[in-house]
Every structure is written in structure tokens, then in C-alpha cells.
Write a structure and sequence with these properties.
alpha+beta, Glutathione_S-Trfase_N, Glutathione-S-Trfase_C_sf
Length: about 210
């Protein structure tokens, strides 16, 4: 059974699609339209109705981008996407991986569809605005902590793929170029990886 990625073009699943490609693992992608999410088919795979979700070659289901990233690192250590347990960079990698999904991701969860969380239109507009500002502050924080050509210094890891994709979302690449030039430079380096050209094309990335 081939690995199947349940995805939506340009979303968080693009991160996993890129990581799968870098491992050399064969996989198939089932794209959902954003307008159709969540739907019954996806809910049967992931009760949260969110992408990405991964059906492994043994039939098991795996969700959550960080969990998928760590699984790929364990299964394909030669890809060097995830530093091994005895690597000094491991602690930094884990902290930033969880930070991205626990701190930055939720600003989209609440900001993209504020009407799901607050019934009043005025409150919904305010929630969108405050989550956007919170996200910008978080990116500036990471910019200050970034000192090498990649997020973890001198080597490329899965985190750099996160940056390349997530910098295409609000406030988008033009903002990063002006406000977080180091993160912008990382994203551009990832953009140029020949191995990922087809992934970016399928996902209509990068976007300004």
C-alpha cells in the first residue's frame, strides 16, 4: 500500500508533501478543495477535519504536522530532516518545531475563520486583526533568534521547509522581505531546491 497524503493546495500539507519528496519516499496525494473542507471523507481520516493527514503504507493514520515530521525523521534518517537524538542541534530543533505548531499555527486556526469562535462580526474582525499582529510578533521573535543560513544554523532541516511554506501565508513574502530578512532568505533558498520545484508548482507556491 502506498503512502497517501490528504492535502489542500498551498496549506500545511505542502510542508509534508515537500518533506516526503525530500526523503525519496513514493507517495500519492489526494487534494481537497478548500471550499469543501471539512467534508465526510476527510473527517473519516481526521476527526478534526484538518489537513495534513497521512495514511501510512501499513494502513495506519497519522495526523499533525509535527508528528508526521518526526515520523519521517525516524523512518528516513539519511534525509537529515530531523537531527538524531544524540545531535547537539536536536534540542533547538524540537523547541522550534513545537513552537511553530503550538504558537504560530493557532494564529491561523483562529484568525482564518474567526466567525467559528466569536459570533459577533465586530469581534470576528478584531480576532482576525489581533491574531495577525500576534503572528507578526512571533515571526520577529524567530528572526532575532536566527543566526545562520538555516533555522538550525549551518544545516538544512525540516524547519526550513516550514518557513518556506508558512512565509507564503499572511503576512506573506513581501512583509518577510522587509521585516524578517533572514527568514525571507531561508525561504528563498528552499524555493530554489530543484527537488521541490514540482511540489511548489502543484501547490501554487511561493506567493507574494
Amino acid at each position: 500500500m502506498a503512502i497517501t497524503l490528504y492535502a489542500a493546495r498551498g496549506g500545511g500539507s505542502a510542508i509534508v508533501e515537500a518533506l516526503l519528496t525530500l526523503t525519496g519516499q513514493e507517495y500519492r496525494v489526494e487534494y481537497f478543495s478548500w471550499e469543501d473542507l471539512p467534508n465526510e471523507e476527510l473527517l473519516a481520516v481526521n476527526p478534526l477535519g484538518e489537513i495534513p493527514a497521512l495514511r501510512l503504507d501499513n494502513g495506519d493514520l497519522l495526523t499533525e504536522t509535527a508528528a508526521i515530521t518526526l515520523w519521517l525523521g525516524d523512518r528516513f534518517p539519511a534525509s537529515k530532516l530531523v537531527p538524531p537524538a544524540d545531535d547537539p542541534v536536536r534540542v533547538q530543533f524540537l523547541r522550534r518545531l513545537v513552537w511553530l505548531v503550538a504558537a504560530v499555527y493557532p494564529t491561523f486556526t483562529y484568525g482564518d475563520h474567526p466567525e467559528r469562535f466569536v459570533p459577533d462580526k465586530t469581534d470576528a474582525v478584531q480576532l482576525r486583526e489581533t491574531t495577525d499582529l500576534r503572528r507578526q510578533a512571533l515571526w520577529r521573535q524567530l528572526e532575532k533568534e536566527t543566526g545562520g543560513p538555516w533555522i538550525c544554523g549551518g544545516r538544512r532541516t525540516a524547519l526550513d521547509i516550514f518557513i518556506a511554506v508558512m512565509s507564503c501565508w499572511r503576512p506573506r513574502r513581501q512583509w518577510f522581505a522587509a521585516e524578517c530578512p533572514q527568514l525571507f532568505a531561508i525561504a528563498q533558498r528552499v524555493d530554489q531546491l530543484d527537488t521541490l520545484k514540482k511540489v511548489w508548482s502543484r501547490n501554487r507556491l511561493p506567493q507574494t
